[in-house]
Structures are given as structure tokens and as C-alpha cells.
Specification:
6 helices, 2 domains, elongated, single chain, mainly alpha
């Protein structure tokens, strides 16, 4: 099973981190000290952070207020609903099944979670993904649907 735990920081995260440091008016020494402290002495360089460390550090440096957190939660729910609807169009997931009652809904979500742990970039349950992971998963499902449509047209 692949994880993002030890993968290096992405270029987008690096840009966001440096923009945050700039917004907070941190000079190079303060930046390096912050990273050193955050990583428990492992590194002073932002380029040596992992994806997970970068996510956590960005979260600590950019705390959301309650209103922003609620908006993000609602957006994540909407993206989850889109993913759930898409799952009914994919033969390997929930195509041909219904969601008429709570038991069927839970079973369909469980199948979607199993699929997500195996095939998504996040490698975890859809129900445990954060907004950006849900958005990536939705893009992945949409791309899968486009490929399937092209196959059936041939």
C-alpha cells in the first residue's frame, strides 16, 4: 500500500509555505528556526519536508476561523456527494445498485471506501479524506468516466 507519508513536499506546497512565511514577515533565520522546531531538529530546509509535514505546518501557520472551517466542511460534503453519484456510473463500484435505504447507502459507501484505499492517490477511505483529497478523487473518477466513454464509443 502506497502512502504519502514519506514523499517529499510538492512544488505547490513549497510555494504556499514560502508565501505564508512572507505574509508572516519571517526572515530566513526565523523560517529555518520554525522548520527546525517543527521537525524536531530533523531539518531546517523547507525542501526537505514531507507532504504530511508541509500540510501540518501550513495548517498551523494558517489557522482557519470557524466560519472558514464550516465553509470548507460544507464544500467537502458537496464533493463527497458528487463522488457518491459518480460511483453509480462506474461498473466496478455501485453501478446497478440502489440507495433506497440507510443500509444500502452504508454498503455503497463501504464499497467506495474499499475502492478509494486501493486506487486513489490518498490511499484512504473517502469518508476520511480532507477537501483537497476529495477534489483529487473526484477528478480521478471523472477521468475514469471519460476513458470508459471513449472505450464504449469505439
Amino acid at each position: 500500500m502506497r502512502t504519502t507519508k514519506d514523499k517529499p513536499i510538492t512544488s505547490q506546497q513549497l510555494k504556499a509555505l514560502h508565501a505564508t512565511f512572507h505574509t508572516l514577515r519571517m526572515d530566513a533565520d526565523a523560517r529555518h528556526g520554525c522548520i527546525y522546531s517543527f521537525t524536531g531538529g530533523r531539518t531546517q530546509s523547507s525542501k526537505e519536508l514531507t507532504i504530511r509535514e508541509a500540510q501540518q505546518l501550513l495548517g498551523k501557520l494558517n489557522p482557519m476561523d470557524d466560519k472558514a472551517r464550516e465553509l470548507q466542511r460544507k464544500e467537502a460534503q458537496m464533493v463527497f456527494r458528487d463522488i457518491y453519484r459518480l460511483s453509480f456510473l462506474i461498473p466496478q463500484l455501485n453501478q446497478g445498485f440502489t440507495s433506497a435505504n440507510e443500509e444500502e447507502y452504508q454498503m455503497n459507501v463501504a464499497k467506495l471506501n474499499v475502492w478509494a484505499r486501493k486506487y486513489t492517490k490518498a490511499r484512504k477511505d473517502v469518508t476520511r479524506m480532507v477537501l483537497w483529497e476529495l477534489q483529487e478523487t473526484k477528478k480521478q473518477l471523472e477521468a475514469f468516466m471519460r476513458r470508459e466513454e471513449r472505450k464504449t464509443k469505439k
